[in-house]
């Protein structure tokens, strides 16, 4: 069964690298169709200057680089992102393990994980980064591959400032993502390629648009486990992407209401960092203050982050 699985996986990987059609890009994650850049395609003639290879990841930087055998992922520090220098197909070609080892969740301290979905963009994401830098807080950005292709310099800033980067699909389109587990995985692989092309590494962490709790069947869970990814939803949210469009004060109150009178030790907060999320920007400094006053430490999502359910 596993031989068949990896055979189909390799076909999928090859297809994702070749590309799935060229269509016009947009800055809206809900409108951009799936696209994989191919340096050898007619739109990128080989006689034109090609972008330089991204700088290889360095293990002494402010992140953890996975060992070839994935043996160094059991960590006691929730503040450092975790990345891999290999895409899945590179691990497969080299005969390296793909499926992650069993990891004990980090539960040593009460920890808040601020997470921002649907970016990066060139308006809201930089404002959020400015606030996080001023507050000395690290966060996790679940990025869409088409947004990475459009705003690579913002992704570089996220990475260089020590935040964690997660995979949030290529185009966020439910009709394409959830037509089958293979369609979902195709977009995850495309986004890994986009991320690694910019920063030289790819993440292990993913977040399913809409949340895996409401979108995944058993087949989806089996596939992401086999492919060595860890999916995290959330247990608190500002509701900044709901039709009610809460203002900054309402967003803070939404989080505090989620936490209740007996807050959990590990809290993953869902927010967004794209397009019109200016109220999220306004809410963020006060939200950080509230959480600090409650005694939480700020961490970034890694494969050892406790699940929110």
Polypeptide structure, described:
- The protein has 309 residues and is α/β, with parallel strands linked by helices.
- The chain has one domain: TIM Barrel (Alpha-Beta Barrel), CATH 3.20.20.370.
- It is built from 11 helices and 11 strands.
- It has helices at residues 2-18, 88-94, 124-135, 145-150, 152-160, 174-177, 181-199, 212-215, 218-226, 248-259, 278-293, and strands at residues 64-65, 82-84, 111-119, 140-143, 164-167, 202-203, 205-206, 230-231, 236-237, 266-272, 297-299.
- Helix 7 packs parallel to helix 9 (218-226).
- The longest helix is centred in the middle third of the chain and has 19 residues, at 181-199.
CATH architecture: Alpha-Beta Barrel
Binned strand content:
5-15%
- Overall pLDDT level: 86
Assign the CATH class.
Answer: Alpha Beta
Termini separation: 30 Å
Quaternary structure type? single chain
CATH superfamily: Glycoside hydrolase/deacetylase
Please count the helical segments. 11
Q: Return Rg in Å.
A: 19 Å
Number of folding domains? 1
Q: Let me know the number of strands.
A: 11
Silhouette: globular
Category from helices, strands and their pairing: alpha/beta
CATH topology type: TIM Barrel
Unreliable stretches: 1-8, 14-53
Order of H and E elements = HEEHEHEHHEHHEEHHEEHEHE
Main β-sheet: number of strands, strand sense, barrel status? 6 strands, parallel
Helix residue percentage: 25-40%
């Amino acid at each position: 069964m596993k031989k068949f699985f990896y055979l189909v996986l390799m076909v999928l990987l090859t297809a994702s690298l070749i590309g799935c059609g060229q269509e016009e890009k947009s800055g809206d994650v809900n409108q951009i169709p799936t696209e994989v850049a191919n340096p050898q395609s007619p739109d990128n003639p080989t006689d034109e200057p090609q972008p330089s290879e991204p700088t290889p990841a360095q293990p002494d930087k402010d992140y953890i680089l996975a060992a070839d055998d994935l043996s160094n992922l059991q960590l006691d520090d929730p503040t450092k992102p975790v990345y891999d220098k290999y895409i899945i197909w590179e691990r497969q070609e080299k005969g390296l393990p793909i499926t992650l080892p069993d990891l004990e969740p980090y539960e040593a301290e009460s920890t808040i994980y601020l997470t921002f979905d649907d970016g990066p963009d060139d308006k809201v994401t930089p404002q959020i980064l400015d606030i996080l830098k001023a507050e000395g807080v690290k966060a996790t950005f679940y990025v869409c591959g088409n947004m990475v292709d459009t705003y690579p310099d913002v992704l570089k800033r996220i990475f260089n400032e020590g935040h964690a980067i997660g995979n949030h699909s290529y185009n966020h389109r439910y009709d394409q993502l959830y037509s089958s587990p293979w369609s979902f995985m195709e977009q995850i692989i495309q986004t890994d390629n986009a991320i690694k092309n910019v920063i030289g590494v790819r993440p292990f962490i993913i977040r399913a648009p809409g949340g895996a709790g409401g979108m995944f069947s058993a087949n989806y869970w089996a596939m992401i486990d086999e492919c060595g990814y860890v999916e995290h939803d959330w247990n608190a949210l500002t509701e900044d992407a709901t039709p009610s469009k809460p203002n900054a004060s309402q967003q803070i109150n939404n989080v505090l209401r989620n936490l209740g009178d007996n807050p959990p030790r590990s809290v993953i907060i869902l927010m967004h960092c794209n397009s019109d999320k200016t109220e999220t920007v306004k809410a963020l400094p006060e939200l950080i203050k509230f959480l600090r006053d409650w005694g939480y430490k700020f961490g970034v999502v890694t494969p050892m982050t406790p699940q929110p359910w």
